[in-house]
Amino acid sequence: MDSSRRPFREFDDSQDAVSLRLARRVVRGLSLSMRQVVLAPGSRSAPLAYALAEAEDLGALRVHVRIDERSAAFTALGIAMDSGAPAGVVTTSGTAAGELLPAMMEADLAGVPLVAITADRPEELHGTGANQTTWQQGMFASRVRDEIHLEQAETRLEPESRDDMLSAETQVALLMRQAVEARGGGPGPVHLNIGLADPLVPQDLDGGSDPAQQRWARRPILDESQRRRMHRDAGRPLEQLHSQELLGRLGEEERQAAREQIRRGLAAAQQLDAGVPSVVVMGHDAPPEAFTLAAELGQPVLAEPTSGAFDARTAAVDGAVPAHRMLLPAPEGSPAGELARRIRRVVVAGRPTLSRPVQQLLRRADVEVLQYAPAPLPWSDERLSRRTEADLDAVRRFLGSAPEGWRDAWAAAGTTALRRMRAILETEPRLTSVRTAAAVAERVRTSLLLGSSSVIRDVDLAADLGGVLGEGPGAAAMDASAGRGPIRALRGLSGIDGNVSAASGIAIARDRRVTALVGDLTFLHDLNALLIPSGEQAPSVDVVVVNDGGGAIFDQLEHGEVGRRSGRAAQVERLFGTPQTADLQALAAGHGVEHRLVTNLGQLDAALAHPDDRLGLRVIEVRTDRTGLRDLHARLAAVVDD
Fold it and tell me: CA gyration radius for the chain?
């Protein structure tokens, strides 16, 4: 593009390779809002690697190197998921870029601002048989909020003004905005593809003119550690402040707006339907104000572990109904069954995915269902069968005030069911996967990532996350919540790949130890999460592996019933149980990772205690037997029969 204007230049690297110059401007655009980048090595992406290393030396961002691209992508996903800020993953061209697809798919449906940065061959090499060359533009189409391609020979390096929209830096910065505030779609992944031409290494220049010695890299106005410190200094979540204390912190115009909002809320409360037997279903990543509303109206909350209801800095644990998935399908005529059948309205907040009884409740013909969606839902469109509502006052009017004693009845029924289940689990001769999952969730003193498949459902079923039992594990849960971070999971697509890597990303984002609770197949599927380059600092993660030698979840589904038919057991075990006999201790040792085998709850408690006293990765293996799980679940389900 011809222009008579002189370039606007903040630093001079005009003597360096063009690929390095482009890479620096890309990094400048990224670092306006990104603080963490995960890099998988490659030759075509070398200019980006050199530029990122320079930026790290200048304090603009942090770089984490991983050998496996898929693990790198899920590590970046974990960083972005926990921090809420964009995190990048950088790969070379070819199949390396394709390895990012699973994480991009998860980020899409989970609304996570993951930034895929893929190096590409220049345009003139495409269609010529050049090595490691494929068409990468649009490779994540329909999975990303936006994507751009920068061709080295065609991209403007030097902006003509501070607001030059066509410069490489500005184009990248605008793409980053799409990751966090895409119109209509909400936060989500974006793709930056860059065609880089030789030479791919920095020029050998005199030290005085070396661009690496210039302060070319940008820093975010407020980085994540500063933001986290501000939140810690606040002491309490904003919603827990008393109204006068809150108003005292606002300016005059803000105070007037807050008073008006309170006035409208009180007026709406006076117009509520009275005595409406409703419940609030809090699925994955539910807006926290939904719980506050349920508490205000006296309606029971049916909360999944990753809903946010059980995070340390919320009060939600006081009102979430334990063992709710057992109460909903209770037989007609039982106290729990009568409670479930009285439900007439349901407000859904977040995305419920764990429980078939909850899904059956949402499909009942005699129940009105409303989805609270204050922001775009990344996992649904106009085909969602239930009506959505963004206005909290409208949700309040729909929900109505609860009948007298309604919430207390649910709490009592849930506590009774949980206590009876606990009694059954305590009498088992060996430690079961259900009891192990519940114990870890109750006792852990760190942020917790729950693996997909069985373990998250076991926690949802039997863990006393709210401490309602008041002693033993329940007391441990309450004590743990005082210092525990959020409970996370990959529920966008609920895959078993990348779970351990995502936990590593959470540990990086929080700069604290994290616990991952996963099944054996989930662990083996992401074994490369243990493969950390020797020059890198290993993330601090305790990986608790419930090892039952295969896939336990299928026995709880229809396939378990098929496996009990004559002549079908071996077939179902082979096709779905996928039995394995991998030596986890040897695998850990081969990666230089500590391994610890536990056989009882006392050893598990000791292994999880004092998380701040250790660094790096560690595998805690709990061996269980899945052969009796279907019968165990049948006995657990019977606790609500009378």
Answer: 26
